[in-house]
Design a protein that fits this description.
The chain has strands spanning about 1-5, 15, 20-35, 40-50, 60-70. A hairpin with a 4-residue loop joins strand 3 and strand 4 (about 40-50). The two termini are about 20 Å apart. Strands 1, 2, 3, 4 and 5 form a 5-stranded antiparallel beta sheet that branches. The protein is elongated, with a radius of gyration of 14 Å. By secondary structure, the protein is mostly beta strands.
């Protein structure tokens, strides 16, 4: 499925890369590409537009991927 990323709600995006690189998502998409309940693995992609919470500068995060095992 495809889900919206935003500043509030169930799915929020953030990026932290040091003291001055802290971003919060304004809008974007998270796409689940595989959910294997037998292996308890979920895979997907994401992208989002974000604002630096310190400077207010805008940035775009693209081509994000995840591959997680859960319990």
């Amino acid at each position: 499925g495809t889900y919206n990323i935003g500043p509030t709600g169930d799915i929020q995006g953030t990026f932290s890369g040091g003291l001055t690189a802290s971003y919060a998502a304004d809008s974007g998409k998270l796409i689940i590409t595989e959910h294997n309940t037998g292996d308890k693995r979920i895979k997907g992609t994401f992208d989002f537009d974000a604002t630096n919470v310190i400077s207010g500068a805008a940035s775009v995060f693209t081509d994000g991927e995840f591959n997680l095992v859960y319990q």
